[in-house]
């Protein structure tokens, strides 16, 4: 049954925190500390603590535990007394670490500054990857980004130094690749301010994407709340081979579960097929679990992870993990809420899209589907890399395909771009010759950053509105996400399939069966790709791009120019006025999907993520108005004129009108309920989902029952229609006592300050 969500939104708050997110310094091996390069001395891994908590919980529950349960419950703040019921209760957790990308880090650090605390309570890092626009090529684009974003980078660098947060400079790489190379390890719990933080699950970690307010809580030393996740088991049998890649596993699972099927659950992969997947391949699968709404995804510890840890300079951690390996795999006989079985021997290469990552096609069938549906067959651009697929193995397999074409005198018919996931990957593939091969076949190597995957792409080969097809190894392909062109048909697949299709120049090409033609007229078929899982030599770390915070940053200053249009110090939100919310004019009733991309788009808006007032100018501008099927065109019921969503909302605010936005509860809003609560908002759902249809765009709504607001007690909505009639609806909420206190105080941060006095 569909879920619907009604959220009372203040214009002050920019929704869409980008949200959904370990330089380990020392490992506790029983009693000994092992120091490592670039690592904070306060960071540690304690399997003894994990073991103790798991033993307590297992005794209480008296049943076998899944792997995800072990790691999650192993981080409980109070394992003796915490109520545990999958899918119902809220857990109070103590994550080991926080990671923030530079777009969301701005608001998170501004909030932390306003808390008045002198230093973060857990190891934390900032990663500069979101603000670099792809235009010409890596060096040029990076230099331009450093100039354009100088003010933001300076703020993040100085704030990190003052408050004890590590700072990865622009050019260092994508947050999720840096985490995998440095911070993720089996059994750790990490939260990150980006929806693809689950990438770390490829190394046996529970890594969860959150909003900035959640990150602030953890950095402030406050227990973090998470609704106790359900667990979906994916049993893998067989072995990956040929053109089939780890990406095909998640493309297939996405087709099965759809973009909502994993909501509120952790996807836990297990079974004999796991051992045929590399550690970075497992990370790819976990990364794209965000596209099915999953809280996170995770794989059990195995020899692939051990090898990766050793290759990335963390042999000591691998040794400790070996000693505690029984903690890092599921118990025999554990039960899952749902089971999916996938035989890797039978799995074929997939390509998903357009416009949604759960529209799955075998590569062998996508050409026919394109012809049937009128999708452009010509591939204009092929793009490989991103946080999902930019490992050494990915680049090697893509290069093996490219070299076959070069050896036959062919180059890409489509434009072709390559995004290394980190400076370490860039330097290593350059040293080992992959970059030259990919460049010779027609590729342009972009900066070590998110780039086109998040819309940071100054695309100029097609005009806006021009129908065209691109294929990427990214994770998301929603309308206009990559290039701001709603007519671009974006498909996601593996890097090796992207490379093959870029060479062929058409969707109607199956490399398993179809032939290419050389300039001399010779026909040949591509051999299945191959690539080393890890370099035979050590990784080349490239340039040192990490800034470690000083031991004592209390004397340092963080300056924010009051005239800046990029950064703005925060003012506390108002407390609840102790009355019900009466006669609120509906701002917008949204039709269709309403993901974080619709609520607060990325791309050019990322530059304002540190300025609450300016970022509010993109609030819901991508959502479709049910009244007129238009985007960013709603009626101002005070003036009778039509305007943009933010403009009308600002007018209502100036007239002291509250304005609720109403939309179907797509996973983008459902997953961020806790983050909304932390900002003093009131996310509600309809008790009867069909009541959504009773609301009219010109209604005025009153929310009653707030004076007796209590956990589990529904609230009431009174709809006042313009024809004078009224209807009363029941609204559900998931607030607990602590969250109600956030609402009453105006925000979680306000409540934290109250408790300090």
From TrEMBL:
<keyword id="KW-0411">Iron-sulfur</keyword>
<comment type="similarity">
    <text>Belongs to the aconitase/IPM isomerase family.</text>
</comment>
<dbReference type="InterPro" id="IPR015928">
    <property type="entry name" value="Aconitase/3IPM_dehydase_swvl"/>
</dbReference>
<dbReference type="InterPro" id="IPR018136">
    <property type="entry name" value="Aconitase_4Fe-4S_BS"/>
</dbReference>
<dbReference type="Pfam" id="PF00330">
    <property type="entry name" value="Aconitase"/>
</dbReference>
<dbReference type="GO" id="GO:0005739">
    <property type="term" value="C:mitochondrion"/>
</dbReference>
<dbReference type="InterPro" id="IPR000573">
    <property type="entry name" value="AconitaseA/IPMdHydase_ssu_swvl"/>
</dbReference>
<comment type="pathway">
    <text>Carbohydrate metabolism; tricarboxylic acid cycle; isocitrate from oxaloacetate: step 2/2.</text>
</comment>
<keyword id="KW-0479">Metal-binding</keyword>
<dbReference type="Pfam" id="PF00694">
    <property type="entry name" value="Aconitase_C"/>
</dbReference>
<dbReference type="GO" id="GO:0046872">
    <property type="term" value="F:metal ion binding"/>
</dbReference>
<comment type="function">
    <text>Catalyzes the isomerization of citrate to isocitrate via cis-aconitate.</text>
</comment>
<keyword id="KW-0004">4Fe-4S</keyword>
<feature type="region of interest" description="Disordered">
    <location>
        <begin position="518"/>
        <end position="557"/>
    </location>
</feature>
<keyword id="KW-0456">Lyase</keyword>
<keyword id="KW-0816">Tricarboxylic acid cycle</keyword>
<dbReference type="GO" id="GO:0005829">
    <property type="term" value="C:cytosol"/>
</dbReference>
<dbReference type="InterPro" id="IPR006248">
    <property type="entry name" value="Aconitase_mito-like"/>
</dbReference>
<feature type="domain" description="Aconitase A/isopropylmalate dehydratase small subunit swivel">
    <location>
        <begin position="584"/>
        <end position="654"/>
    </location>
</feature>
<keyword id="KW-0408">Iron</keyword>
<dbReference type="InterPro" id="IPR015931">
    <property type="entry name" value="Acnase/IPM_dHydase_lsu_aba_1/3"/>
</dbReference>
<keyword id="KW-0496">Mitochondrion</keyword>
<dbReference type="InterPro" id="IPR036008">
    <property type="entry name" value="Aconitase_4Fe-4S_dom"/>
</dbReference>
<keyword id="KW-0809">Transit peptide</keyword>
<dbReference type="InterPro" id="IPR001030">
    <property type="entry name" value="Acoase/IPM_deHydtase_lsu_aba"/>
</dbReference>
<dbReference type="InterPro" id="IPR050926">
    <property type="entry name" value="Aconitase/IPM_isomerase"/>
</dbReference>
<dbReference type="InterPro" id="IPR015932">
    <property type="entry name" value="Aconitase_dom2"/>
</dbReference>
<protein>
    <recommendedName>
        <fullName>Aconitate hydratase, mitochondrial</fullName>
        <ecNumber>4.2.1.3</ecNumber>
    </recommendedName>
</protein>
<dbReference type="GO" id="GO:0006099">
    <property type="term" value="P:tricarboxylic acid cycle"/>
</dbReference>
<dbReference type="GO" id="GO:0051539">
    <property type="term" value="F:4 iron, 4 sulfur cluster binding"/>
</dbReference>
<feature type="domain" description="Aconitase/3-isopropylmalate dehydratase large subunit alpha/beta/alpha">
    <location>
        <begin position="69"/>
        <end position="505"/>
    </location>
</feature>
<dbReference type="GO" id="GO:0003994">
    <property type="term" value="F:aconitate hydratase activity"/>
</dbReference>
